[in-house]
Hints:
The complex is a heterodimer of chains A (251) and B (253).
Chain A: E1 2-11, E2 14-24, E3 29-34, H1 40-47, E4 55-60, E5 63-64, H2 70-77, E6 80-83, H3 95-106, H4 111-124, H5 140-152, E7 158-162, H6 170-187, E8 190-194, H7 200-204, E9 207-212, E10 215-221, H8 222-225, H9 231-237
Helix pairs in contact in A: 3-4, 3-5, 4-5, 5-6
Chain B: H1 2-30, H2 37-47, H3 52-76, H4 83-121, H5 124-130, H6 135-173, H7 178-188, H8 191-217, H9 223-252
Helix pairs in contact in B: 1-6, 2-6, 3-4, 3-6, 4-6, 4-7, 4-8, 4-9, 6-8, 8-9
Amino acid sequence: MIKLVGVEKTLGGQRVxxxxxxxxxxxxxxxVIGKSGEGKSVLLKHMIGLLQPDxxxxxxGDVEISRLKGRALxxxxxxxxxxxxxxxxxxxxxxxxxxAFPLREKLRMKGTEVTRRVEEKLExxxxxxxxxxxxxxxxxxxxxxxxxxxxxxxxxxxxxxxEPTTGLDPLMAKSIHDLIVAMHQRFxxxxxxxxxxxxxxxxxxxxxxxLRKGKIALMAPAAEFVKTTDPEIQEFxxxxxxxxxxxxxxx
Amino acid sequence: xxxxxxAWAIELIQEMGRMLLFVLSSFAWLTRPPLRIVQIxxxxxxxxxxxxxxxxxxxxxxxxxxxxxxxxxxxxxxSEGLLGSAVALSMIRELGPVLAALMVTARxxxxxxxxxxxxxxxxxxxxxxxxxxxxxxxxxxPKLVAGLIGxxxxxxxxxxxGIYGGYLVGVxxxxxxxxxxxxxxxxAVDWKDVYGGILKSISFGLIVSWVCCYKGFFTRHxxxxxxxxxxxxxxLSSVLILVWDYFLTSVLL
Lengths: 251, 253
């Protein structure tokens, strides 16, 4: 579904990605982990063309997007949605208008059909009755839910999640994870998530990839990943204790 | 030192090129559907209508102080009857376009830079990109159009209020001749003066919205970056208005 081949990227004089080779399987939830500053968000932004690699290729299906611009790139982006770290809700629009935004702008949809789809999505993410509120009136968790509703409303093939639970308390983070998993199981989209939530990600992901020193150190199904014998990776994922397959740290 | 100077010169030329590409791309997107009429009207409301109070206030006091200074100067030569033309020509040719544009820069321009800068920092502009919506078409082009329409309208208001402010002081307060005030305006002001004022106001409207939108769009990702962008936008807009005013005046005269 998504494939990066030999992707290199330098930002601000620093070599962030130093030859990324990764294939994201279709219909699965893949989580990218790694230390802070390794370039996980940079990697994610390459997948949707927000950044172009200095070298290498980015494939979405059978389209190579690394040098695409304008309408050609927009045609690829129509397959995507993205939940940003801060949700990136438009401040001047209400929650309802934020979720309706892609429907009105891209599908030129109007009237009761927009209302029906938006209210359906808000209910699915647990924000029913909140459509009239503005982003400034929402908590962090509610913003993420609203951002998720906006990402889901166009029923995309691929959703990218950039640290969806950063800044949230453990209970709220768990509820966001549960929501992502529930939506993934229901709508079967391809999901790529960047997350620091170890060991929780092993309980919700199909595949896990670790970014280390600008390259993919390991990518494997979650159950195999936790059994890795690489001492550095084991140290990283076991910071809260040895990881059980349920995605919790066993003490 | 030569190397630093060279690097600075190259950076300056690159910045000028980026700014030109920015405004040309934005205008190119204007011609493609959807036409964003609602956004244009909203921006016109923000830049134009909401700046009216500060423009009226500035215009009133500018006209009043112009009349105050002018009256006593002209009285030395027994030419108080020319007060109306002095106030009107100053307003229409120079003070109206320049001061109105500077007020719009301070009020609406800085707000535009801050709004777009915050959208950049909080990834709202990236969100538009990911939804395959061009940020130049959705965000920037309506602001450019609103600047081109709104500032000339504000300048017209500025001129009228300023002339009446001059009348208030010159005639009502200082006892000048009201008939002479209006007659001198009618005889001195012609279409060339008005046309020059309109041309200036349109170009100043473009400068304000262009520079302020550009600085906000390319804000660095930090609070310090946003603060710097807002300051640079206001300073650069103001300087460009004054510099362009000189060149346009030298061409028009």
